[in-house]
TrEMBL record:
Source species taxonomy: Archaea, Methanobacteriati, Methanobacteriota, Stenosarchaea group, Halobacteria
Keywords: FAD, Flavoprotein, Oxidoreductase
Protein name: Acyl-CoA dehydrogenase family protein
Pfam families cross-referenced by the UniProt entry: Acyl-CoA_dh_1, Acyl-CoA_dh_M, Acyl-CoA_dh_N
InterPro entries: Acyl-CoA_DH_CS, Acyl-CoA_Oxase/DH_mid-dom, Acyl-CoA_Oxase/DH_mid-dom_sf, AcylCo_DH-like_C, AcylCo_DH/oxidase_C, AcylCoA_DH/ox_N, AcylCoA_DH/ox_N_sf, AcylCoA_DH/oxidase_NM_dom_sf
Amino acid sequence: MPFRLTADQRELRDELREFATEEIAPVASTLDHAGTYPGGVLGALADRGVTGLTVDEQYGGRGEGFVELAVVVEELSAAMMSVGAALSLHLGVAETIERFGSEALREEFLPAMADFETVGALGVTEANAGSDKAAMETRAERASGDADGDEWHLTGHKQWVTNVAEADVVLLYAKTGPESEAPENVSAFLVPTDALDIDHEWDAIGGDSVPTARVEFEYLAVPDDRMVGEEGRALVQRGDLRGGVNLPARAVGIARAALDDAVAYATEREQFGQAIGEFQGVEWRLAKMAERVETARLLTLRAADEADRGAETASAKTSMAKVHATEAAVENASDAMDVHGGVGFTSEYPVERYFRDAKLLTVAGGPNDVHRNTVARSLRSD
């Protein structure tokens, strides 16, 4: 099998690497420390068609696959993980609409999402429903006296809605059936963000430029035609989505950035009359960091390739890549801080941001131990 990207994929990678180097890296630390949303960067990506990367061409997107998504997200995240996160979350909502939404919803939302005129966010997790999504308490009831079933009333909360302050619409999950029908008792709805009350904005230590908030809503009226997918099938259908390769791709970007910065610093920093990178202990540490980047990228691209081919093992491969890549990112960021010495523990260098952002990814998209369970179950089913 060929262990290389196609010519088009390499061209895409090079284009985004140049963009990230010139447009994101110079402002990343400033945006991160101020907690400022990278709206200008995302707008520039929209001008290049990247915000519609995986949206089908018939809806105004580029129609690329998940390998291309992994390539793009790695490049963006190497410069600033929050940019990769904002793009990935947005495209994840678009994927759900395209895969399971009605044709009317596709035509209404996808062209605007591809142009980034409409920005999507996701609302699934709750205070008592983290990894156990089936434990969610948010409910959607058909409006009283609505014989035609044209409207739903949603009541509940969502604990972690990333980018809700900048988004236009939230893909919100709620129970529409009895517990006896679980997991086929949860439905998804597209809800305008201005209909939600922000109850609490989380002061996170990573991903500061794309903030996360808890939202609440009571008897929120949502038209029936805003339901995405079949009634009661949203959680099951969510398991068929393949955009999750964005998470390990973000981690690969961080791991690579940490390696690049560590190599550069070890080359220029001198102690005891020589560059510290010439000491064998530092050489071995850098070699291990390089190994982590390569293995994490290979696992991620394999998962993305299986997702593109619709392989049954794609979910397990994505979980495997997520665990390995996110932990590689944490280890590389930690090693990069050590190579930098005291200055690595200051905000003068970006390696401390790599560490904060990498640690977030071990929890985001489901804790790594939950993904280990997914891998283990796939072994038993083989």
